[in-house]
Amino acid sequence: MDAATSSSAEAVATAPEASPAERIPAVKAEGVSKSFRLPLDQPSTFKQRVLHPRQSRAATRLDALVDVSFEVKAGEFFGIIGRNGSGKSTMLKILAGIYEADSGTVAVGGPVSPFIELGVGFNPELTARDNVVVNAALLGMPRAEALARFDEIIRFAELERFVDLKLKNYSSGMQVRLGFAAAIQADADVYIVDEVLAVGDARFQEKCFDTFRRFKREGQTVIYVTHDLGTVERFCDRAVLLEGGRVADAGDPRDVIRTYRQHDLELAQRRHSAQEQTSTRWGDGSAEIVDAWFEDAGGRRQEALAQGEQVTFCASIRFKDSMEQPVFGVIVRNEERQHVFVTNTMFDGVQTGIYAAGDEAVYRVSFALEMAHGHYTASPAVAYEDSQRFADWREDFAGLSVSAARYSGGIVDLPHRTDVSR
Fold it and tell me: What are the DSSP E strand ranges found in 149-254?
């Protein structure tokens, strides 16, 4: 080999691997739109159809996707995020060839292994072995190869004891484990995964994470849809945010997640403003919670604060009847209606005093804002001294959005220190 050839070979051997952004597209969607016709009143009997032949024609149109465009590079781990109904699953079904787009084009550069819906392609009357063979055929895998890989599929799914059991007797978790194990065994150029981690215990989820890590090491192309923003930030090279069937943002996962969370906060604030007009309340009316709000450390009313800041919840109370040692309290809930913080003056050992009709009081609770990123509501209450009867309770009467630097997936983000030693 001459010097020039040797130099050329060495250059090729040491050339750095192309980054995902530099690789050719494995998937390309351009201007994809898809709509569905939703009948307003579908006849359910033959008699209704005969007597009202035009009834089933009344329908409304749902635009699931509107002019959606993006590219997924070969070897890229690509995330698609968005709220329920944003068009994520419809987009995946178009990529998998299950739906056909009304307009626009989709190009997929090779075989696809989709894992989109629990049980799709499975027959509940067949055993795990037979279902693996049928599912493999749908993915383009020969029967002999499917049978050769069967033991590995069953081992990964942890279903060795249930091989001869019909799928109709499987739990949802067992079915999703079998489906995921079969899908990842296919020799595909593009793997499509939709919310696989929503079902299954923590140990199986960690096995899925191990598979994702292997895919990244091997340079596999993966399109991943999930509500778990933490895994998107953890695994994805890029991401796209769908809102109302349209692309709202695309690019670096952290930037896209930031946009998603910001839009979520704005939506939650709008919902809370509407709820304030019809806040549920109960009690005998001996006292009235006139107003409730959150204040920052400077005493200014706030509807949004950064995580870690000092905050004070305040409630203004007016007494219509005399009361002795009333109990003031508050419940702070997150968007999932979980009780994040509950306290009252009885818990805290505070004597509230004696009030005559017409008196007023302000109840304040100060704390560090260690809640996770999201929107929170406060439900203040005034109870009698025995804490069994309520004078006034106002559900979700005040709201506060908490902005955090990262998404942790927890209910609270407690201040902490981490050490690693060996």
Answer: 190-194, 221-225, 238-243, 246-251
